[in-house]
Amino acid sequence: MYAVFKRELFSFLSSMVAYITIGIFLLVSSLLLWFFPNTSLLDYGYAELGGFFSLVPYLFMFLIPAITMRSFAEERREGTYELLITKPITLWQIIIAKYLASLVLVLFALIPTLVYYYSISELGFPKGNIDSGAVIGSYIGLFLLGSAFTSIGIFASSLTKNQVIAFVICAGLCAFAFLGFDYTGQLITLQKFENTITALGINEHYVSISRGVLDTRDLIYFVSFSIVFLLFTKLIMGGKK
C-alpha cells in the first residue's frame, strides 16, 4: 500500500501539472484576498479570514478535480492498471493509497496559505488581533472539505479513461454536494423539509466547523461522506476488474 501511495504522490510531483495547479490555486486565492475590490481584506478593514474561507471551497471545485482526475483514468488509459492489480495488494488498499496521496497534495496546497494568517495577524491593530480559534477551526473544516472532495474525485476518475471527463464529473459532483442541497431545500414545495435537506449537504457542516466549534456530528458526516464515495469507487473498479 505504501508503495502505491509513494508512486502516486511522486508521479504527480514529478510533473509540471502539480506545480501549475497548486500555483494557480495560490495565485487566485492571493488575488481574491488582497487585490480584488469586492473581496480584498485591505478594503474590508478587519483582521479576519472569513472571506478567504468562504471562497476556497469554490477554488477547491477546480483544484481537487485537477489533482484526482488522473488517479484511475490515466492508469486505465495507459494500461498500467492491469499490472497494478496483479500485485499482492487488495483493491481497497489501492483505492486508499491513491486517496491519501491526493489528499496529501491538497494539504500541500493549503500549507502556504498559512502566510495569510501570519500577515493578517501582523497587520492587525494591535498585532495578533485575530481570532485564532476560528482560523484553526476553519482550516480543519477546509481539510475535511478537501477530504470529501478528494473522495469524489477518486470516484469520478474510476468512471472513465478520459481525464477531462473525470475532471468535469468531479467538478459537477463537488458543486452539487456543496451547494445543491441548499438550493433544493429552498424550493417552495420542499420548504417544510428545508432543514433536513440542507443538513445532507456539505456546506451546512463546513460552515458549522468554520465557526471554530468542532461538533462530532460534523466530523462523522465528513468521514462518512468520504467512506461512501470510496466504497462507490470500489464497486466500480471491482466490477471492471
From TrEMBL:
Transmembrane regions: 12-35, 55-73, 94-118, 138-157, 164-181, 219-237
PANTHER family assigned: MEMBRANE COMPONENT OF ABC TRANSPORTER YHHJ-RELATED, MULTIDRUG ABC TRANSPORTER PERMEASE YBHS-RELATED
Signal sequence extent: none
UniProt superkingdom: Bacteria
Topology in the lipid bilayer: Multi-pass membrane protein
Alphabetized UniProt keyword annotations: Cell membrane, Membrane, Transmembrane, Transmembrane helix
Lineage, uppermost ranks: Bacteria, Pseudomonadati, Bacteroidota, Sphingobacteriia, Sphingobacteriales
Protein name (record): Gliding motility-associated ABC transporter permease subunit GldF
Subcellular location: Cell membrane
